[in-house]
Specification:
heterodimer; A: alpha+beta; SH3 type barrels; Alpha-Beta Plaits; 3 domains; five-stranded antiparallel sheet; three-stranded antiparallel sheet; 8 helices; B: mainly beta; four-stranded antiparallel sheet; about 55% strand
Chain lengths: ~290, ~240
């Protein structure tokens, strides 16, 4: 008796016209599908290790796994004489309904995946997105959680995060802030600049480099306007900003340099003009 | 002040006061340094030890970076040249509690002003603790609890002249040793080209017989692979 592979594969198993070959094809496609699903899910887990918490990583890996398995089953079922055309019609209608219903969910999911790969924000970053300012508490598959500076929990759908302008205040190592300081015309601007530089230099978190910049910006109605531009570590700039201005003002005042009030000097038509007088030295109306 | 203590101790000199004493049966740690005070009651076993030693100077006033940038008088090195110089670095003092069950940080303090800087550009650069030092041909005299000595061996491996006026180190790699006179570290700087250099520390004492400091990352139970620092934003 000679074994014939072709004949064996073509042997009917007694259910409709299904042959041994069809069964083997079905089993082979399912096995390949499972292998591909496992490999892809494993790589999804690895790729998202540092980008997603474990629970969401596992969920996403399982979703990918079962999508591939379903795809393999759909490819393999025709070998068992299952006609999927009816299912496809029904599935198409159901898919359409589900598609419309879950449009925003899918959009948020895809946006979330793009956010995880592009990484414009990270947990702990101080950001402004869609008009909401605060620190990022969590980046989930569908939404980003931001805690505003007044402690309010805010959930922003990932689609909104992805399509909005994102300002990340701490993406760079350092950031600059500035003060406008006004002194009287009678005060020495060079001395004021020197004193302000001393105060800034004494603060540990006001960076040595880039060096702070202080200069006369404009000659205002009520005094000389100085600008101080100071660099600080991006994560600590606010504590520097809230402390330094008052220290500078106090140091200036200790040295007789005063921040002037808004003032107007009125020259009366019949009054004798005093040579050399300046703002604050004549008749003053506040 | 540096050393290991098994019971009460007291060190007072100038601006420094560090002590552990029993008050109403409670072991109390106290520290004063330049007007800043710190106090903790210690609930520890008889076998517990207090260790006081210099630590990586990147913790004060805030633990915001691991990098230390030392700026010094510019040095010009011809291609292939090697030069060993001595620099000063700020000393921060760590106080550790150690028992059979592990080690923990009790206090970190230091004298003098601290300053931070940005090494590199705002986008891509890094915040570093900054200090300025002179360049010395031999171990300079230092105020023991304020300044340490770093032996820096600079090697210009490039085929171009190199101008060096700063060195940036990863403080986590720093191996500090101390004796009765100084705290010291031994570092290397390999110039790859006129704008890039690699820095690192060598785990050997500057002077034989020095005691090795307990490192902060050990107390914080952080696994660290010594890998040096690549200065890619210039050498000055």
């Amino acid at each position: 008796m000679i074994f014939s592979l072709t004949a064996t594969l073509g042997t009917s198993i007694g259910i409709g016209t299904i042959t041994v070959g069809d069964i083997l094809w079905f089993a082979g496609i399912i096995v390949v599908g499972v292998i591909i699903a496992k490999v892809v899910a494993l790589n999804v887990r690895r790729a998202l290790t540092e980008r997603l918490p474990k629970s969401e990583r596992e969920l996403l890996a399982k979703v990918v796994y079962y999508i591939i398995i379903l795809w393999a089953i759909a490819v393999a079922l025709p070998y068992l004489n299952f006609d999927l055309s009816g299912l496809l019609v029904a599935g198409g209608i159901v898919g359409l309904v589900i598609g419309f219903a879950s449009q925003s969910v899918v959009s948020n999911l895809v946006s979330g995946l793009f956010l995880m790969f592009e990484r414009p924000i990270k947990i702990g970053d101080n950001i402004n997105v869609a008009g909401i300012t605060g620190s990022v508490e969590d980046i989930k598959v569908l939404s980003t959680i931001v805690k505003t500076y007044d402690g309010i929990y805010t959930r922003i759908p990932n689609e909104k995060v992805f399509t909005s302008n994102i300002t990340n205040y701490v993406n760079n190592a350092a950031r600059r802030f500035e003060y406008k300081i006004r002194i009287r015309y009678r005060d020495d601007a060079d001395e004021a600049i020197r004193l302000a530089k001393e105060v800034i230099a004494a603060h540990p978190l006001a960076l040595k480099n880039p060096a702070p910049m202080i200069y006369v910006d404009s000659l205002g109605d009520n005094g000389i306007n100085l600008i101080a531009r100071i660099w600080a570590p991006a994560r600590n700039w606010w504590e520097v900003r809230t402390v330094l201005l008052w220290k500078i003002v106090k140091r200036l005042e200790e040295n007789g340099i005063i921040v002037p009030y808004p003032q107007r000097t009125l020259w009366l038509a019949d009054a004798e003009r005093t040579p050399g007088s300046d703002a604050g030295a004549g008749k003053v109306e506040e | 002040m540096f050393g290991q203590y098994t019971s009460t101790f007291r060190y007072e000199s100038g601006d420094f006061l560090v002590e552990a004493e029993r008050i109403d049966g409670l072991l109390t740690y106290r520290r004063k340094c330049e007007g800043r005070a710190f106090e903790r009651i210690l609930a520890v076993s008889e076998a517990a030890r207090v260790t006081v030693n210099p630590v990586e100077p990147v913790n004060l006033p805030k633990d915001i970076t691991d990098l230390l940038q030392i700026e010094f008088t510019p040095i010009v090195l011809e291609p292939g040249a090697a030069q060993t110089v001595y620099l000063k670095f700020p000393v921060e003092i760590g106080v550790f509690l150690a028992s059979e069950k592990g080690i923990d940080i009790l206090d970190i303090f230091g004298a003098g002003a601290q300053k931070y800087t940005l090494y590199g550009p705002p986008a891509g650069g890094a915040i570093a603790r900054w200090c300025r030092s002179g360049v010395y041909p031999r171990v300079p005299p230092v105020e023991r609890f304020r300044e340490g000595v770093m032996e820096l061996s600079i090697l210009n491996t490039s085929s171009e002249w190199a101008h060096v006026s700063c060195a940036v180190f990863n403080g986590v790699d720093m191996k500090i040793f101390y004796n009765d006179d100084i705290a010291a570290a031994t570092a290397t700087m390999k110039i790859i080209n006129p704008t890039i250099a690699e820095t690192g520390f060598i785990d050997i004492p500057l002077v034989p017989g020095m005691t090795r400091s307990v490192e902060l990352y050990r107390a914080r139970k952080i696994r660290v692979i010594s890998r040096g620092y690549l200065m890619e934003w210039g050498l000055s």
